[in-house]
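>> received
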Amino acid sequence: MKENIFSGIQPSGILHLGNYLGAIQQWIELPNKYQCYFCIVDLHAITVRQDKEKLKENIYKLAALYLACGLDPNKCSLFIQSHVPAHAELAWILNCYTQLGELERMIQFKEKVKQHKNNINAGLFTYPVLMAADILLYQTNYVPVGEDQKQHVELCRDIAHRFNNLYGEVFVLPQPLIPKQGARIMGLDDPAKKMSKSAASPNNYLSLLDEPKTIEKKIMRAVTDSGTEIVFNEVKKPALANLLNIYSLLTDLTIPALEKKYQNLGYGVFKKDLAKVTIDYLTPIQDKFNKFFTDKNLLDDILMQGANKAAAVSAKTLNNVYQAIGLK
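>> returned
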């Protein structure tokens, strides 16, 4: 039997190139080797106040982008988190097996508190437990994540290990699956910070749906380092290293090949070519997105089928949990 993979993205804000290169691009081939569950994690999104109509639209947009990027619903389960109630049910149970100190140490909670000072709710604090429930429901072997999410997978393993020690081998202990290149795409305006949907400036990220002129403008304005030599060095030239990573991931060219290609040509030529490469790469995705997004009935059918498959699998895990703790 195939091993299992689970991953999900929030339908909040704009899906950007960092999401694609750090996650979705790696997802495309995974169903050929693994049983994959790819989720639109809308329950996670509501830790921040959402406009309900915009949230619904963002869910459809994300589903359409999943498909446009190449995910095949016939090879994987593509679904909305809230359409499978077992996620919320298991999250409550796991809350009772998670220590307060473990949640207090979570780096992302500290960052979220700074961003949302007027809405520091319990959901922000227990967010990692819901993530653990997402993963453990599908007896997940591997979780494709960036470096910044590795701590969440480690907490998930700790919770599962604690539960298994008490009740037997109920959960598989998941492992993070971190791509060697592209796991952490940095902001175009600040190479010290990750490319983010919630960034204050739109010049931080490249949306998958940005128009060609916008893409060109953002890349030409991207921060560069001192000097003009095109050399990959994450310490001395972090901004250029980030752009080289993006270029390499969007083409078949290795970073050494790019260094050779742009030797003595300078940043201007390099950026102009990177803009063209990005536009050429994203245009087919945008064309497919427009077709999927305008067919809501098709999206509803795909998401319902995915939810039905996910519900059948997650129900078995939840039933085992209930039996283990004495609720059945």
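>> The mean pLDDT is 92.
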